[in-house]
Amino acid sequence: MTPNETPQACPAQEQPAGCPVPPASADPAACAPKTSRRDFLKAGGTLSLSSLMGAGALMAQSDDAHAAAEWAEHFQKNYRLMTDKEKDEARLRLEKRYSAEYGKKVTVDTTGPQPGVLMGYALNIRKCIGCRRCVHACVEENNQSRGKRPGEKIEWIQVLRMERGEFSKERMNQGYPEGLGIQVGGNAYTPAGQVLEGQYHYNPETVPEKDANYMPIACMQCEKPPCVKVCPVRTTYREGDGVVVIDYNWCIGCRMCMGACPYWARRFNVANPVLPKEEMNPVTHYLGNRPRMRGVVEKCHWCLQRSRHGRYPACVEVCPVGARKFGNLLDPNSEVSLVLARKNVFRLKAELNTFPKFFYFYD
Amino acid sequence: MKKLAIYTLAAALCGSALYAVSAVDKAAEQAKEAAAAPAEAAAKEPLVCFESRKGASEITQKEVKPGLPNVKCSPTTGAALWYGDPYEGTVPMGKMPQMANLPEGQAVVRPRTEKLNLVAMCATACHNGVVPPGFPKHKKPVPIPTMEGMLPEVKDFQHGRGAIWCLDCHHATKRDKLVDHYGDPSISFDQPQLLCGKCHGDKLRDWRDGIHGKRIGEFASTGKKRWFTCTECHNPHNVQDGERNRGFAQLQPEPAPQLPKGMKDARHEKLHPIPH
Questions:
Q1: B275: closest chain A residue by CA
Q2: Which is the most buried residue in A31, A126, A356, B220, by most CB within 10 A?
Q3: Block means of pLDDT (10 residues each) for chain A, length 363 residues?
Q4: Per residue in B71-102, pLDDT tens?
């Protein structure tokens, strides 16, 4: 960032290419009608602009990529409102900054949704052995914080170990009222089937255990995501290929989305993320696994940096039992479409009408 | 005299040429050493991790690009945790029945014949194409002391629960092949799905469609994928034992997530078991 470029990042002076006035909708192609607010800003902006330019020139004196990027990021728009040119500038800025910070060539991808692709995920709940390899593959891929102190270790996938045997043979005659031998199929004392209650911190010698079922839970990429509804700055949104993403720069860290998510999928960077240089994955996506800062929320994004280029997400590739399936829901021959057509499928907490694109199935 | 001179000249020429060659070699070696030194310092011995099942297939870590390894291994369990290059060491799967609509070369597998090379040694030592004397005429399972000594797991052979035995899958004289529908040794160890699918047809159908089993690479249905074959995940000689309940050998799990702040252990999770 040179001093000459700094004022261009200022929103008061900026003119998006091919659009006479800044767009007011989420669609960058749509142009908003001319308003008097802009005239007001133009008139009043001159004073503030001059002061900003001075400060910008001062800031940009240093050659520090970090400082320059931070300065420009203050004046960056919401990712959805950015033009292609602005996205490119942001990309180059971040690449320079991350490369300097991590001591290797880091690429920041801004590839958008591919036409004709609606991503979907299926997980075979019978196959999962609870080995947690997906959890750690995700950490390797997505540059999560991996420190030792509280709050510095972030994992996006949780594997829930649940007790088995609610309908076991020995207990067929149990029920309420006790001793009468009436099987009522669950009551306040023994719930029917499975409840989402169990252990996340199980650590036996070997898995799978005889009396346990394992249920990996991560972001469900809902079609009607509650987190998107509650975000006050609209920084989290659903992309065209179905993935719910976060523009980390606009996240204010209010954690409303974490409260809204019924799947416990979102994580908050309480502390400064700890990411060793040698462990950092240099292939990143702007909306995906680029290194996050303190005070922003992050979550699974189906490895956008991979899946936008046709690769399977990291957790799918590493699952030793092949329980995880990923594909294009619009393609009738994809794995996920065939699972939906052929297997017994359920969605987690379907009664909440969030319409996840993450399906659990069993043979 | 003249002859002698010619000989000495020839010898001298040869010597100088040899010396030149060795000097060039030395220089090249030195350059190689210099290049290899930092790499060696980074990783003393090659890191080998197992893929799906311990003992079935291994992958050696190396760099595909500077800073980008082909695979990352788990420091806790030694399992492959992350694939940088999903197609390493693969060959085309070849023609499979009912998979003709897959474009050529889009389905690849990692060959396992080399890994199962023990079998080749068997073929030269004992099973050398000649039917040994005393070979059973019927198809009923009989205990073979030699084989039980070499492979203790066949003593408690669970596959088929006593109904099948060695020669239902392996050929009697060609030990590096598996038998097809007609008892001919036409199936290689790289294509066990042709053998397993003879009985497990439903699983073969799901495997062909990608519902059963594991594939890595590109997710599009026409994309290039590395397919994991049956024996890379399942041990056909040992299909059910111990505490397992899902058809896979038990393995060590990766470490548990961080405990909530201020907690010493995860007992709080067990205080609310499902029956309240």
A1: A190
A2: A356
A3: 41 42 46 52 51 49 66 87 94 93 93 95 93 95 93 94 66 51 47 66 89 91 96 95 95 96 95 93 94 95 95 95 95 95 94 95 89
A4: 999 999 999 999 999 998 899 988 888 888 88
B171 shares its domain with B157: yes
Rounded CA-CA distance B93/A11 in Å is: 56
Domain that holds residue A306: 119-159+218-362
B207 in a structural domain: yes
The answer to whether residue A347 is domain-embedded is yes
CATH no. for residue A299? 3.30.70.20
Virtual CA dihedral for B231, B237, B240, B244, nearest 10 degrees? Answer: -60
| Number of folded domains that form chain A | 2
Residue-range definition of the domain harbouring residue B126: 91-233
Asked if B79 lies within 8 A of A190 by C-beta distance, the reply is no
| Residue from B60, B109, B76, B61 nearest B251 by CA | B76
B71 and B105 together in one domain: no
Do B97 and B199 lie in one domain? The reply is yes
The structural domain count of chain B equals 2
Smallest Cα distance from B221 to chain A, Å: 5
Question: What is the band of B262 on the pLDDT scale with cuts at 50, 70, 90?
Answer: confident
Do B75 and B141 belong to one domain?
A: no
CB–CB contact B67 A105 (8 Å) = yes
Residues of A whose CB is below 8 A from B220: 310, 327-328, 331, 334
> Which among A206, A243, A303, A357 is the top mutation candidate for probing chain B, defined by the most B β-carbons within 10 Å of its own β-carbon?
A206
| Domain identity same for B80 and B115 | no
Dihedral (C-alpha) B26, B30, B31, B32: value to the nearest 10 degrees? 100
Tell me what percent of the residues of chain B surpass a pLDDT of 70. 78
* B219/A312 Cβ within 8 A: yes
B51 with B98, same domain: the answer is no
Would residue A257 count as lying in a domain? Answer: yes
Position A272, amino acid: N
Put simply, the answer to whether B216 touches A317 (Cβ < 8 Å) is yes
Closest residue in chain B to residue A306, using alpha carbons only: B218
Residue B54 at interface with chain A, using a CB cutoff of 8 Å: no
Domain membership of residue A182 (yes or no) is no
The span from the CA of B167 to the CA of B91, in Å, is: 28
Across the interface, of B83, B86, B252, the residue whose CB is closest to A206 is: B252
B97 shares a domain with B222: yes
Please tell me the distance in Å from B156's CA to the nearest CA on chain A. 20
Among candidate residues A105, A130, A146, the one where a domain is terminated: A105
Quote the pLDDT of residue B198.
92
Six-digit token string for B243: 């505490």
**Residues A310, A134, A337, B226: what is their CA dihedral angle, to the nearest 10 degrees?**
50
A198, closest residue in chain B (CA to CA): B269
Q: Residue B43: is its pLDDT beyond 70? A: no
DSSP 8-state secondary structure symbol assigned to residue A114: P
Residues A24 and A142 occupy one common structural domain: no
Residues of B in contact with A202 (CB under 8 A): 253, 256, 266
B35-51 per-residue burial string, b: 16 or more CB within 10 A, e: under 16: eeeeeeeeeeeebebbb
pLDDT at A263: 94
In a domain, B24, yes or no: no
pLDDT for position A42: 57
Considering only CB atoms, which chain B residues are within 8 Å of A282?
67-68
Task: Considering only CA atoms, give the Rg of chain A.
Answer: 24
Does any domain span residue A260? yes
Q: Are residues A13 and A101 in the same domain?
A: yes
B66 and B117 in a single domain? The answer is no
Distance between CA atoms of residues B45 and B40, nearest Å = 8
